[in-house]
Amino acid sequence: MAVDLKERGLAVVDPQARRLYDPRGRADALVTVGDGTTLPYLTKELVEDLLADPPDPNNPFLVIEREEQYYVQTCLDSDGVYELEYRAGSEDEHFHVHTSDRSLVRDVVWAWSTDNLWWRDAVRWRDLTIEERPG
Question: Is residue 13 part of a domain?
Answer without folding.
Answer: no
